[in-house]
From TrEMBL, chain B:
<feature type="transmembrane region" description="Helical">
    <location>
        <begin position="35"/>
        <end position="53"/>
    </location>
</feature>
<keyword id="KW-1133">Transmembrane helix</keyword>
<keyword id="KW-0472">Membrane</keyword>
<dbReference type="InterPro" id="IPR000701">
    <property type="entry name" value="SuccDH_FuR_B_TM-su"/>
</dbReference>
<dbReference type="Pfam" id="PF01127">
    <property type="entry name" value="Sdh_cyt"/>
</dbReference>
<dbReference type="InterPro" id="IPR039023">
    <property type="entry name" value="SdhC_prok"/>
</dbReference>
<feature type="transmembrane region" description="Helical">
    <location>
        <begin position="73"/>
        <end position="93"/>
    </location>
</feature>
<comment type="similarity">
    <text>Belongs to the cytochrome b560 family.</text>
</comment>
<keyword id="KW-0479">Metal-binding</keyword>
<dbReference type="InterPro" id="IPR034804">
    <property type="entry name" value="SQR/QFR_C/D"/>
</dbReference>
<keyword id="KW-0408">Iron</keyword>
<keyword id="KW-0812">Transmembrane</keyword>
<dbReference type="InterPro" id="IPR014314">
    <property type="entry name" value="Succ_DH_cytb556"/>
</dbReference>
<feature type="transmembrane region" description="Helical">
    <location>
        <begin position="114"/>
        <end position="134"/>
    </location>
</feature>
<protein>
    <submittedName>
        <fullName>Succinate dehydrogenase subunit C</fullName>
    </submittedName>
</protein>
<keyword id="KW-0349">Heme</keyword>
Length: 140, 145
């Protein structure tokens, strides 16, 4: 065990071929996004769970009329819309990392990610559509 | 990122290269906190998928929505709801811990005490929360309707 064993070879610092300027910053932004969205989701999701499960009669009081009452208010519409987009993107981006970590074959990774992207689009599109086209009188 | 750390520690270990003695990450509580963060995150994402679809039934008909939402009201579903709250709460608290490790200058130094702290907060919230929901569930199961 010699201390001088260098585990990796290190590029010469000023060698002209370094492609640094061409790299994309996507992973950096996605890392930041996970943290910022996480911070907002603490309030949005824990607040949502508190309201739905613990306040008043909890889950027993939820029905169509309850949702209609809540979505009559722009505040809860905005709350749900933000929560929908942030949870969908944060959870989806998180799952992308998980797939990258565990999928061993390029093909598996490709198809798992396609499945993931389709589910993200379904979640966000369906949720947004429902929120914007909600009709409290649909039953009449 | 946590995932990168776990993998490089594992690789060093397998190569018999762990000469840094006490700093090995594998098997450390820090690794398990990351495993649990990952599992809870994935489970909550799966729930979100189902949940957006069940909520979408409000666009079909009030009756369709009410019938499906009934399933959440069965007393046994209290266990599922507690599991969901427990998972989201752990993920949220540990997420805050991860952010403190990343952005707070003393974060890495205190990562372990912070882990015990969030587990304590988790218990302090989950014990009364479970008690409340379970008592309500039992009342619905035996006394209800
Ligand atoms: C068992 C626990 C839960 C119950 C009983 C519940 C209940 C509801 C209800 C009744 C709505 C209709 C809109 C409203 O009244 O605001 C809703 C919408 C929503 N919930 Fe939950 N929720 C639960 C857990 C969660 C969790 C853990 C998340 C986040 C991951 C979440 C995310 C959402 C989103 C994004 C919407 C809006 C959906 C849309 O725009 O179509 N919910 N939830
Ligand atoms: C409640 C507030 C939340 C906070 C504070 C939070 C925080 C975080 C943070 C900081 C990360 C990055 C971890 C890392 O880079 O090592 C993360 C990862 C992740 N989150 Fe969240 N999150 C929250 C809610 C959610 C929700 C609602 C979902 C699901 C829809 C979710 C799913 C995930 C997944 C799948 C990962 C990837 C895990 C991994 O790579 O190991 N999170 N979360």
């Amino acid at each position: 065990m010699s201390v001088t064993d260098a585990p990796f070879s290190v590029d010469k610092p000023r060698s002209p071929q370094r492609p640094a300027a061409r790299r994309s910053n996507f992973e950096l932004y996605s890392w930041l996004f996970m943290r910022l969205s996480g911070l907002l989701l603490v309030f949005l999701v824990l607040g949502h769970l508190l309201i739905m499960l613990f306040l008043d009669d909890g889950v027993q009081r939820i029905n169509f009329a309850f949702v209609a009452g809540r979505w009559a208010s722009p505040f809860w519409q905005f709350w749900d819309l933000t929560m929908l987009w942030l949870a969908g993107l944060h959870g989806g981006n998180g799952l992308r990392t998980v797939i990258n970590d565990y999928a061993r074959k390029d093909q598996t990774r490709f198809w798992l990610k396609m499945l993931l992207y389709v589910s993200m689009i379904v979640i966000i599109a369906v949720g947004t559509f429902v929120l914007f086209t909600f009709d409290p009188n649909i039953g009449n | 990122m946590a995932s990168t750390t776990a993998h490089s520690a594992g690789a060093a270990d397998r190569a018999g290269n762990a000469r840094l003695g006490g700093t090995l990450y594998r098997g450390d509580p820090g690794m398990w906190s990351w495993v649990a963060h990952r599992i809870t995150g994935v489970l909550v994402f799966f729930f979100l998928f189902v949940h957006v679809l069940d909520t979408a039934l409000v666009r079909v008909s009030p009756n369709a929505y009410d019938v499906v939402i009934e399933t959440y009201k069965h007393p046994v579903m209290v266990l599922f709801e507690l599991g969901l709250v427990g998972a989201v709460l752990y993920h949220a608290l540990n997420g805050i811990r991860v952010m403190l490790v990343d952005f707070w200058s003393k974060g890495t130094k205190y990562q372990k005490p912070m882990l015990w702290t969030i587990l304590a907060i988790w218990l302090v919230v989950m014990i009364p929360g479970s008690y409340y929901l379970l008592v309500k569930g039992f009342a619905d199961l035996f006394g209800g309707s």
